Amino acid sequence: MSLHLCNPTTFFSLPLPISASLLSLTTTPVTNYSASVPAIYRLTAPAIAYTNLSFCNITLTYTHPGQNDSIIIETWLPAASSSSNLTTNPTNPWNSRLLAVGGGGYQAGRFDLSYAGMQGGLGEGYATITTDAGLGSDTTARRWALLSEGNVNLYNLLNLGSASLGDMGLIGKEIIKAFYGKGPEYSYFNGCSQGGRQGMVLAQRFPGLFDGIVAGAPAVYWSEAMGGFQWPQVVMNEGGEWPFGCEVDAIGEEATKQCDGLDGVVDGIVQEVEGCLGVFDPFGMVGREVECAQLGGRVITITEAAAAVVNKTWHGRERVDGRKVWYGLVPGSDLTVNGSGIVATNCTEERCVGRANPLGKDWFELFVEKSSTADVSNMTHRELDRYVKATKQDFGSLLETDDTDLAEFKRQGGKLISWHGLIDQLLSPKATERYYQDVSAIVSETQEFYRHYEVPGLEHCFGGPSGNPLELLGQLRAWVEQGIAPEASPVNVTRLDGTTEARVVCPYPQKAKFDASCTGGACWTCEDAIRPPH
Ligand SMILES: *[C@@H]1O[C@H](CO)[C@@H](O)[C@H](O)[C@H]1NC(C)=O
Ligand SMILES: *[C@@H]1O[C@H](CO)[C@@H](O)[C@H](O)[C@H]1NC(C)=O
Ligand SMILES: *[C@@H]1O[C@H](CO)[C@@H](O)[C@H](O)[C@H]1NC(C)=O
Ligand SMILES: *[C@@H]1O[C@H](CO)[C@@H](O)[C@H](O)[C@H]1NC(C)=O
Ligand SMILES: *[C@@H]1O[C@H](CO)[C@@H](O)[C@H](O)[C@H]1NC(C)=O
Ligand SMILES: *[C@@H]1O[C@H](CO)[C@@H](O)[C@H](O)[C@H]1NC(C)=O
Ligand SMILES: *[C@@H]1O[C@H](CO)[C@@H](O)[C@H](O)[C@H]1NC(C)=O
Ligand SMILES: *[C@@H]1O[C@H](CO)[C@@H](O)[C@H](O)[C@H]1NC(C)=O
Ligand SMILES: *[C@@H]1O[C@H](CO)[C@@H](O)[C@H](O)[C@H]1NC(C)=O
Ligand SMILES: *[C@@H]1O[C@H](CO)[C@@H](O)[C@H](O)[C@H]1NC(C)=O
C-alpha cells in the first residue's frame, strides 16, 4: 500500500535542528482527498481542481527548550508508490520538490490561505508545508503578544519574524528524506503579505535553504508598514474631522476616472500612479455633492477634511516637522473598503469617528504600548512618530525585514520574484519598489536572481479588476531549474464591460504597453520605462 510509510516509525529518528525539541508527532494517511482552489488563492499559479488524491499528513509540535514556545509544522506528502521508483505512481506522484507556503496578518501559517496554497501544491505533486510559528490561528495577536502587562513575548515575535521559517525549511527537508528516502531536488516558497515578508526573510537570512522564492505584497519595512496603517487616522484625528466613507470613495472614484487614460487605455485601471498625483487634485472635489449610499442615499457635500485625508494618504506618512518619511497608497486603491480600510470611519447618521485598522491598532497597543488595555484610536501625530521610532528600536531586528544585501542568496543560486498589486489598499506598492531599487543599488546584476512585478489593477494579494499573476510560480521553477529567466507574465484582467482580457505584467522597471495595431490577442508587451529613484 502506497501510504505504508505514513506511520510514526518512519519519523522515529527524525533529525531536528539543535535548537528544537520534539513534543509530539502525528501521521495521518489521507485518501480520496478532493480540492478545488481558485487562482486567487494560489496567488501565483492557475486554478486547480482534483479528486481522489492520497497523501501522508505529518504534523509535529516542537519547542525551543527554555523559550516555552510550542510550534506546529504541518506537512502533506503525496503518496509515493511502494516500489523504490518514487516517480511511477500514476495517480499522485511526488514531483521531487518542496513547496512551503506563508501566512497572512498575524498568522504565520496553518490558516485558510496557507491550506489553499498547500492544496494547490499537492495537486501539482509538491510535498508541501506550513508553520504556525507557535502563534495558533487567531487573526489578532492578542492571545500571544504579551507575557504580562508591559512585557512582550519576544520569542513569539522572533518565531514570527524568522526563526520558525528556518526551522520549517530544515525540518521539512528531513521529513521528506525520512518518507521518500531522499530530500527534495528543489525547494520553493510562495506567500503574500505576511507571507511575502516571510519569503523575503528566507532570502535575507537563510540563503541556500530555498532555491526559489515568490513573495507577494511583502510586509517589509515593518515599522513603516505599521505607521502606514495608522497614518490616515492620525491625519483625521489632528484635523478633528472624520469624513463619511462615501466622500472619500467619491474622490477616489474621480481620480480613477481622470487618471485611467494616462496609460493610453481606458479600462478602469490606473497604471500611471505618479502621473495621477500630478494631474488630479483631491481638493478640486470639495463642495461637490455626492449621493451617500451609507446614509440611505442622502446627498451630502464633500468636505475639505475628506480631500485632506485622501491627499495625505496618497502622499504618505510625514513627521510632525513636515518631513516626508514613507510612501502612501496610490490613487485607484480603495481607501475605505466599505468601513474596514485604512481611511475608514465609523459613522452614525450625523457624524463619524475614526476606525483604526486592526493590524496597526494591535501592533501599537500590544507591542509598542505593551498593554492589553491600551487604546490608540485617538493617536496624535507626535505619538505616531514616537510609536514608529519605538517599533524600530524595540523590534527592528525581529521584524523589519529590510536587509537589502542579498549577495549570499544570489551566490548560492537562489532566485527571488516579488510582486505587488498597484491598488493595494493596505501596503504601499512603493515600498516593494523601494526594496527592489535598494537591492539593485548594492547587489550587482540584480536581474540575474531577483525580479519584481507590479500588477496594475490588483488589490492586496488578490481582488480588483486584475487577476493574479498566474504563472509566476511556474516561471520561478523554470528559472531555478532550467535557467529560463521570467520575462512577461500573464494576468487576466476584467474590463469595464465585464469581459476578460489576457494581459501581461512585466519585470521592473518595464511596464506593460498596449499595442493598438495588434492582431490575434497578443496586444500587451513589456517595454522599458523610466522609473525615478526613490
Ligand atoms: C471519495 O470522495 C467522493 C467525493 O468526496 C465521495 O463521493 C466518494 O464516496 C468517496 N469514495 C470513497 C471510497 O470513500
Ligand atoms: C482513487 O485512488 C485509489 C488509490 O490510488 C484508486 O485505487 C482508486 O481506483 C481511485 N478511485 C477512483 C474513482 O478513481
Ligand atoms: C493534518 O493533521 C493535523 C494534526 O492531526 C490536523 O490538525 C490537520 O487538520 C490535518 N490536515 C489534513 C488536511 O488532514
Ligand atoms: C509556558 O507557557 C504556558 C502557557 O502556554 C504557561 O502556562 C506557563 O506558565 C509558561 N511557563 C513559563 C515557565 O513561563
Ligand atoms: C523510474 O521511472 C521513470 C519514469 O517512468 C523511468 O524513466 C526510470 O527508469 C525508473 N527508474 C527505476 C530505477 O526504475
Ligand atoms: C497634499 O499633501 C502634500 C504632502 O503632504 C502637501 O505637500 C500638499 O500641500 C497637500 N495639498 C494640499 C492642497 O493641501
Ligand atoms: C458595507 O458594509 C455594510 C455594513 O457593514 C453592509 O451592510 C454592506 O452590505 C456592505 N456593502 C458592500 C458593498 O459590501
Ligand atoms: C462604531 O461605533 C459604535 C458606537 O458608536 C460602536 O459600538 C462600534 O463598536 C464601533 N465599530 C467599530 C468597528 O469600531
Ligand atoms: C477619543 O476621542 C473622542 C472624542 O474626543 C472621545 O469621545 C473618545 O472617548 C476618545 N477615545 C479614547 C479611547 O480615548
Ligand atoms: C484567462 O483568460 C483567457 C481568455 O482571455 C482564458 O482562456 C483563460 O481561461 C483565463 N484564465 C484564467 C485562469 O482565468
Commentary on this structure:
The chain starts with 20 loop residues before the first strand and ends in a 7-residue tail after the last strand. Helix 5 runs antiparallel to helix 8. Strands 1-2-3-5-4-8-9-14-15 form a nine-stranded mixed beta sheet, sandwiched between helices. A two-stranded antiparallel sheet has the order 6-7. The model is unreliable at 81-91 (pLDDT under 50). It has helices at residues 39-42, 112-123, 154-180, 194-205, 222-239, 245-259, 273-279, 304-315, 358-368, 381-399, 407-411, 429-442, 472-482; strands at 21-37, 48-63, 71-78, 97-101, 127-131, 146-148, 151-152, 186-192, 212-216, 289-292, 298-301, 345-347, 352-354, 415-421, 450-455, 489-494, 500-505, 511-514, 524-527. A hairpin with a 7-residue loop joins strand 2 (48-63) and strand 3 (71-78). It has 13 helices and 19 strands. It has two domains: 3-221 and 401-487, 3-Layer(aba) Sandwich (Rossmann fold), CATH 3.40.50; 224-395, no CATH class. The chain is of the alpha/beta class. Helices cover 31% and strands 22% of the residues. Residues 52, 54, 91 line the site of one 2-acetamido-2-deoxy-beta-D-glucopyranose. Residues 338-339 line the site of one 2-acetamido-2-deoxy-beta-D-glucopyranose. Residues 1-20 form the signal peptide. Keywords: Calcium, Disulfide bond, Hydrolase, Metal-binding, Serine esterase, Signal. InterPro entries: AB_hydrolase_fold, Tannase/feruloyl_esterase. GO terms for molecular function: feruloyl esterase activity; metal ion binding.
